[in-house]
Each structure stands twice: as C-alpha cells, then as structure tokens.
Amino acid sequence: MDTRMTKRRNFSDKFKAAVALEALHGDKTVQEIAAKRQLHPTQVSTWKRQAIEGMAGVSSDKVKKAENKDCAI
C-alpha cells in the first residue's frame, strides 16, 4: 500500500449547497470556485448539476402532489 495516499474528504450537505449556489450565481467560473475552496473543478460542476436536478425535482413533486389532490376528490 502506498503511504502517500490521501484520505478521502467528506463534505457536509451545507458546504456542498454553498458551493453549488456560488457556481449557480455565475459571478465566478467553476475553476475559480474550485481553486478558492481547494476542490477539483469536476466536483464543483457535479454539485452544481445535482443542485439544478434537485430544484427540478422540487417543482415536479409539487405538480404530482397537486395532481394527486385533484384525483382524490
């Protein structure tokens, strides 16, 4: 086993959300955010994409709930 291997870092959901929101805001590039936060740019892009998909899920969940309410009447 290589003794130079680094330990995998774990990030809180709050940290991931903050990074994703910063990326969504658009003031800085993904590369700038990654450098500032000491992350790989791919990680920032992944969290940004997941945030976008999560927001789309929230909207579709509201539509599904409304449709289910209409069907229950």
TrEMBL record:
SUPFAM superfamilies: TrpR-like (SSF48295)
GO molecular function, one term: sequence-specific DNA binding
Keyword Transport: no
Keyword check for Transmembrane helix: no
Any one GO BP annotation for this protein: DNA transposition
Keywords from the UniProt entry: Plasmid
InterPro entries linked to this entry: Transposase_8, Trp_repressor/repl_initiator, WH-like_DNA-bd_sf
Short name of any one Pfam family annotated for the protein: HTH_Tnp_1
Protein name: Transposase
Organism: Pseudorhodobacter turbinis
